[in-house]
Amino acid sequence: MPKIIGGSLEEHRERMQERIFAALAALLEERGYGSITLADIAAAAGVARTAMYNYYADKETLLIAYTAHETGLYVSRLQEELATVPNPIDQLRVFVRMQLLQLVTQHVAPSSLSAALTGEGHTKMLEHVAPLRAILRAIMTDAIEQRYLPDEDLDLLLPLVTASIAGRSVADLDGELLENAIDTTSTFVLRGLGARLDSAGRPRHLPTTRHRAVG
User: Fold this and answer.
1) With b meaning 16 or more CB within 10 Å and e meaning fewer, what string describes 120-150?
2) Domain 7-57 belongs to what topology?
3) Confidence label for 211 from pLDDT (cuts 50, 70 and 90)
4) Whole-angstrom distance, CA of residue 46 vs CA of residue 25
């Protein structure tokens, strides 16, 4: 019988999952998703090849579980940061910044997995980003209601905002270059959405539209 790590079977399973996730992350960084097997991950994690199937049936199942875990941690950090800035325009800045920093640190870009995943796997991966889209929608809804953004169709705007962020290549940037990329992308997104800023970069309310009386 395998040696139990921790004080209970539940803790043992959590510890083993941490080891497996750490091994997967390291191999993704080193070799890429397409070049590794479940056996490679098991060996790197110090898990018997046959025992690995007690946790994950295949490499795709493991990747999806790992992505869900990492996304959950990221969403928690994002929500904590957003709670520190009440203005929705400033929250948009936080959202853009943290998304770009996430692109720098993540071990594999979701866009690079499209061809490698099955249809079901691709659908499950998309489900993991749903909370992020919900957060972005809530921020933009607040900005519109508080007259920091014009009232536009969010179903049209949301994909444009996410594409502007995901399309910015920052993987090889750091220091001042990364900060410049974040500032430029934030400014582009805010201007594209119609936000108004004062000379110090502070959000301004949009002017109230008044209709002239006819007659």
Assistant:
1) ebbebbeebeeebeebbeebbebbbeeebbe
2) Arc Repressor Mutant, subunit A (1.10.10)
3) very low
4) 14
pLDDT for the residue numbered 202? 92
Please name the residues in contact with 1: beta carbons below 8 A apart, sequence gap of 6 or more.
Answer: none
DSSP H helices in 83-129: 88-105, 119-128
Which residues have C-beta within 8 Å of that of residue 202, sequence separation ≥ 6?
Answer: none
Give this prediction's pTM.
Answer: 0.83
Class of domain 59-203: mainly alpha
Alpha-helix residue ranges (DSSP H) falling in 83-199: 88-105, 119-128, 130-145, 154-166, 175-193
Residue range(s) of every CATH 1.10.357.10 domain in the chain: 59-203
The CA radius of gyration of the chain, in Å to the nearest whole number, is 22
Can you tell me the distance from the alpha carbon of 196 to that of 39, in angstroms, rounded to the nearest whole number?
Answer: 54
Q: Where is 109: in which H helix or E strand? A: none
